[in-house]
Design a protein that fits this description.
Helix content of chain B: 10-25%
Strand order of the largest sheet of chain B: 1-5-4-2-3
Distance between the termini of chain A: 25 Å
Number of helices of chain B: 2
Structural class of chain A: alpha+beta
Shape of chain A: globular
Order of helices and strands of chain B: EHEEHEE
Largest sheet of chain A: 7 strands, antiparallel
Oligomer: heterodimer
Chain lengths: 136, 81
């Protein structure tokens, strides 16, 4: 998977973990969102600095990184699209991505009047919680 | 009823105060582009809400609804800073 001018093998999402597993709710889209917000797993910025940036923004709880292989997301029918992140740390924002449905599928959903977040949450969220590897 | 979207502190103060007349208020804190899920709070009064807001970065998005009216988008106040 290409993005940010480099090959991306793995991506991560910052999650609260209870009993070693993240909840399905950690991988859901809210109404109006188009893709699941993620970061590329790279040497710099480190995982620790990504988690710290999210904490500085005000996210509460004990946080960990849920890691996915980029290929695993592609097998679920998702595309990784580089987009600008929203944390207070610019270096972290530079490795932000969204896992989205392909455009043709978004159009089909619109034609059917089915919101993207609903399709994503019903079809993918539980599966994402299952396949996530937790880095603590 | 359409949701109210506000962005400045001056506007939000009045709108939020009106919402807390129907407390408790469910507050969803979204972190757009931050690779994480929202946090949720149940605020009994406006002071509690202000304390939460003070420790949040400017780029977060807040969605407030009275628990007496939780229908999607109904009477929801969205604060984007």
């Amino acid at each position: 998977m290409e993005g940010h001018g480099m090959r991306i093998d793995d991506v991560l999402r910052v999650v609260a973990v209870r009993r070693g597993k993240p909840r399905t709710a950690e991988f859901t889209l809210r109404p109006g969102e188009r893709g699941l917000s993620l970061f590329a797993l790279v040497d710099l910025p480190t995982v620790e600095s990504i988690i710290a940036a999210v904490q500085v923004a005000g996210k509460r709880g004990e946080l960990a990184a849920a890691v996915f292989g980029a290929d695993d997301l592609r097998k679920l029918g998702l595309r990784l699209i580089p987009t600008l992140g929203g944390t207070p740390d610019e270096t972290v924002n530079a490795v932000h991505l969204e896992a989205r449905f392909p455009r043709w599928r978004e159009w089909l959903l619109r034609l059917r009047g089915r919101p993207i977040h609903q399709e994503f949450n019903e079809r993918l969220s539980a599966r994402l919680a299952e396949i996530a590897s937790i880095l603590e | 009823m359409k949701p109210t979207i506000i962005s400045s502190d001056a506007e939000s103060s009045e709108t939020v105060s009106a919402l807390f007349e129907k407390a408790p208020v469910l507050v969803e804190v979204r972190f757009p582009g931050m690779g994480t899920s929202p946090d949720w709070y149940l605020c009994e009064d406006e002071r509690e809400f202000r304390a939460i807001r003070e420790r949040l970065a400017p780029s977060v998005e807040l969605h407030l609804r009275s628990v007496w009216d939780l229908k999607p988008s109904a009477n929801e106040v969205t604060i984007r800073t």
